[in-house]
Amino acid sequence: MLPVVVVHGGAGHIPKDRSEMSTAGVCSAARAGYTILRGGGSSMDAVLEAVSILENNPCFNAGCGSVLNIKGEVEMDAIVMDGLTLGSGAVSAVRNIANPIQLARLVMDKTSHSCLTAEGASQFARSMGVPEVSPESLITEYSHMRWAKNLAPDANPVESQMGKMGTVGAVAVDSEGNIACATSTGGMLNKMEGRVGDTPCIGSGGYADNQVGAVSTTGHGEAIMKVTLARLILFHMEQGQSVEAASDLGLAYMKSRVSGLGGVVSVDPQGRWAARFSSLQMSWAAAQTETLHYGLYVGEHFTQSLG
Amino acid sequence: MLPVVVVHGGAGHIPKDRSEMSTAGVCSAARAGYTILRGGGSSMDAVLEAVSILENNPCFNAGCGSVLNIKGEVEMDAIVMDGLTLGSGAVSAVRNIANPIQLARLVMDKTSHSCLTAEGASQFARSMGVPEVSPESLITEYSHMRWAKNLAPDANPVESQMGKMGTVGAVAVDSEGNIACATSTGGMLNKMEGRVGDTPCIGSGGYADNQVGAVSTTGHGEAIMKVTLARLILFHMEQGQSVEAASDLGLAYMKSRVSGLGGVVSVDPQGRWAARFSSLQMSWAAAQTETLHYGLYVGEHFTQSLG
Predict the structure, then answer these.
(1) Closest partner residue to B222 among A114, A196, A228, by Cβ?
(2) How far off is chain B from A32, nearest CA to CA, in Å?
(3) Which residues of A touch B (CB under 8 A)?
(4) How many CA atoms lie within 13 A of B176 on its CB side?
């Protein structure tokens, strides 16, 4: 069944006029990741490529298009994890770079640490020659409009959070059986400065282990952290649950125990995969054995040949 | 058996001339936590008090006495978790405050977020009226000497990390059966600016769940993160392992899978507890049923009446 890449573009309620762009975005990211896998590339390279494409797509809440914090600024979190070594790299509250997921990989590859935050992450980016971009280049008209709307006296913050287009992420298994995950986000609309969510937190935003599988998560960050959702789903898989059943068990537990909604993409070492969510929608796509799979609403599963 | 508080002062190799101070420090912290529990106080108040005392003690790597980063500055991480709600609060790379653990609790109690980092955490501290302290007030002669020594051309960074007096933490169960954990650290000697370790990462530096138990960890942060050590031990407890066996299983797995050493204090909902470590030493103390327990080397277990 190997190789496979599965991508998500965030769980939540996606406005109708943006749903086509969102589906097109995850499909193109999954295709790009699959091209790497088909060429014998590694699962790490595949998830990096897929997530970088979603960061560069202004339609998603990561990289360009990130939601704005309370001060109207972009602060981003990202994580990668390598299932062979259990090594990971993450950045939190990082600014002024186009692709936080690539900086997270540099943390993993080039330092003895697992996470760098804020100004320390920026210094590391400069030392690695990562180009700095202007803060404005990451802010879209749409994200600015939503930020301003949410500051208005009659704003309904719950409703505007519902409208968010979430975190992006990917999991993959390559032809050698190595497994990786990557997750990237602008976080939560109108968050406090310096707020760190689940994404860069290992076991919450993602986890990968060649012996068990990998998960990348999206949804209400604080709820995901309460149940360490990615690691929880992998524990269910260790107990013998299928990748789909384990994903559903994790999401159901998060809903019942802490009233949290979200979604995940998951794989097991054999390349079996799942894209599951308890939110209204989650844009997702998977590519395996020359077939592209994708969907947006519960129960939706379209396929298309990649031949 | 309730209530109980268990405290650690860090895993690693503790220089002989500092071992008495270290043991005295954890014993005094456990006594203070137990006084709160005996008076009907909550487990959260007990772990906060115990960890605040360790932060204020220059002998430990947290608060005053924190190890210095590569630039000779103090940046601290801390987390608290409430086993009733699964709510948590954390700060990472925070500067210029005496008690990061108290700021972590304010994040939990006063915001809708779970973690604030760097300058955002400082801004929040100011908004809450937390007094700012001078950077120098957190730096001891000993931590400055070790930092300088480690920069010398003939320095052996592995040896100097070994000499570190680690992270501090506590777990407690109160008379109502509520469970809490708290962990606080200055991190790793000569770390990069902005390095975030396991401590503020839920499931790695600590985890608390009234239905299962609580764990606070210490040791090599990046290894702890690779196996999400706190959550891993609690999964073993969910599978029916005793608090002691689960702690040993978690530590043994970390050693065999990622060659990581460390230590933990753990409790279950009945108030059974363990203080276990794979490092050479860990200063620890526990207080329960009018008895103080403490130790430093493997197999050491002294007791003393609290009556």
Answers:
(1) A114
(2) 28
(3) 85-88, 90, 92-93, 111-121, 123-124, 188, 191-197, 201-204, 207, 221-222, 225-228, 231, 235, 257-258
(4) 10
A114-153: string of b/e by CB count within 10 Å (b at 16+)?
bbbbbbbbbebbeeeebeeeeeeebbbeebeebbeebeee
Q: Angle at CA A229, nearest 5°, toward A172 and A6? A: 20
CA distance B53 to B39: 18
pLDDT at B16: 83
Closest residue in B to A193 (Cα) is: B120
For testing contact with chain B, the best of A222, A239, A256 (most B CBs within 10 A): A222
B203 in Cβ contact with A228 (< 8 Å): yes
Closest partner CB to A116 (pick from B85, B115, B194): B194
Q: Say if the Cβ atoms of A116 and B257 lie within 8 Å.
A: no
The neighbour count for residue A238, using CB atoms within 10 Å, is: 14
Alpha carbons A251 and A277: distance in angstroms, whole number: 7
| Residue A115 near residue A92 (C-beta atoms within 8 A) | yes
A115/B193 touch (CB, cutoff 8 Å), yes or no = no
* B165 band by pLDDT with thresholds 50, 70 and 90: low
pLDDT (0 to 100) of residue A161: 57
CB atoms within 10 A of CB A298: 12
Rounded CA gap, A245 and B59, in Å? Answer: 49
Q: What is the nearest CA distance from B9 to chain A, expressed in angstroms? A: 22
Quick check: A163 pLDDT over 80? no
Q: State how far the alpha carbon of A196 is from the alpha carbons of A2, A115, A187, A286, B86, in Å.
A: 34, 12, 8, 28, 17
Instruction: Specify the DSSP class assigned to residue B161.
Output: H
- Tens-place pLDDT, residues A73-119: 999 999 999 999 999 999 999 999 999 999 999 999 999 999 999 99
Contact, B281 vs B261, CB < 8 A? no
- Whether residue A154 is predicted with pLDDT greater than 90 in this model: the reply is no
User: What ipTM does the predicted assembly reach?
Assistant: 0.96
Chain A residues closer than 8 Å to B207 by CB: 228
CA distance B255 to B104: 30
Q: Out of B112, B121, B188, name the one closest to residue A194 (CB).
A: B121
What gap in Å lies between CA B129 and CA A262, rounded to an integer? Answer: 35
